[in-house]
């Protein structure tokens, strides 16, 4: 009986330590090598590291603008990779591309540098890329009741109200909500 237990322990030691020593010598130990090769093939199929991917980092700002940054990464461990981007929300993952998004509690760099509140000919509060008139519309908000709008505020919107900070963005939106046709109907 003791010999039987000695053989079982010896076999277990050989099985557990063979993974450490077989690759060093490149040899095969009876049926163990083919089992290890099968396990290695399966692991490569499911966890073939390192993996090279393109990481797309999307930053979504309060004004709806989304900026995109592309980074090439080599993934050595999925756990380490995901930990690196733990402040980001995973949107999509494929064989060679990973997309993350992060909500930014600020206005976009575009608005800070060249954004202006204005009003369209139809009376819609709008943000322009540049002064209102011939500039591209970035975002539209709501219809303003022009009958209630003070002439000074009308003139400010026609000239363009620069947006340099998040506070200014929120302040202007809040002040013009009082003139919203939608707000007046409720």
Automatic annotation (TrEMBL):
One family name in Pfam for this protein: BofC_C
Domain spans labelled Bypass-of-forespore C N-terminal: 53-103
Name listed for the protein in its UniProt record: Bypass-of-forespore protein C
Organism: Bacillus methanolicus (strain MGA3 / ATCC 53907)
Leader sequence segment: none
Domain Bypass of forespore C C-terminal: 105-177
